[in-house]
Structure formats: C-alpha cells, structure tokens
Design a protein that fits this description.
- By secondary structure, this protein is α/β, with parallel strands linked by helices.
- It is built from four helices and eight strands.
Length: 161
C-alpha cells in the first residue's frame, strides 16, 4: 500500500489503517506480509510514521540529499543514507587498494576510529560478514559503516587514503 497525498497526517493514518486491514485479512492465512509506504514531507513526522504503521516513510528532501551526496562522491560511495534526528550517516563503500583501513585489523586502528565510526559488516567472497575487532578489511571489500555526519571525512581518509 502506497500513499502519496499532499497531507502528511493523511498518509500516516492511511498506512496505519491499511496495515491494520492487511493484518486482519492475513491473520488466518500463511500469505506474505504486505508493506506500506508513506510520503512524509515534514521531517518531524518521519519517526512517527515509521513507528505507527508505515514500513517505509519517504521524504523528498532526504532522498534528494542522499542522491546529491552519491553524485558528489561517485566512485567512492556506493550508497549513503542520512539518519534523520541523529545527525548520522549509513554509508556503503568499497575499500581502495593501499587505504589505511586495509593495513591492520579494526581493533588496531586507534583513536580516529574509537566511538566515531562503526563498521557493521563487510561483503567478501560472495557473503556478508559481521565486522569484529580482529576483522581485517581488504581492498575491494564492500563495507557498511555508521558514523556521525561530521566524521564522513575520517571515513574517506580511512578508506581512500
């Protein structure tokens, strides 16, 4: 179910009602769970939409900003998403050859890394792995990172030199 009226409240409430009706209809069957998507223009309502029934809450400004960031940093970032309300970014990138991140395990990266950049997972040899302290990032590994927006430059230093 997708709702894209010009009214934030209507979109959120429509998703809530649609989710309720879908759950009632599917309660006696083993069919796949259906999803709801709401267009939400007011950024203050994004958390409300996500917690009250919308599986996905879309905001045009945030989507446009993410696309601009990808364009500006093309070749470096595969994807980037801003976590609204947290001033943080979720970044997917590929480690460059000879990048500082490829020189030692995560636990040995030092103060630049601690508490500022969280490396959640990496994709290597066709499978995703959870990154832990003794994980060693190799060139061409695809990596998912969470960091405060102000630490994006630190991420670039670590992954691209």
């Amino acid at each position: 179910f997708i709702t894209t009226t010009g009214e934030n409240e209507t979109n959120i409430m429509s998703c809530l009602l649609a989710k309720h009706l879908m759950n009632m209809k599917n309660s006696n069957s083993h069919s796949k769970q259906r999803k709801t998507i709401a267009l939400v223009d007011k950024e203050e309502y994004l958390v409300l939409a996500a917690t009250t029934g919308s599986d996905i809450a879309l905001n045009k400004k945030i989507l446009a900003g993410n696309e601009i960031l990808k364009f500006i940093r093309r070749g470096e970032l595969l994807s980037v998403a801003h976590l609204h309300g947290f001033d943080a970014e979720v970044v997917e990138l590929v480690a460059a050859p000879n990048a500082p991140i490829t020189r030692k395990p995560l636990s040995k990266l030092g103060p630049l890394f601690y508490g500022k950049i969280i490396i959640g997972s990496l994709f290597r040899n066709g499978k995703w792995e959870v990154a832990v302290g003794d994980t060693h990032i190799h060139k061409d590994d695809r990596v998912i990172i969470v960091c405060a927006s102000l630490h994006l430059k630190d991420v670039q230093k670590l992954f691209f030199g």
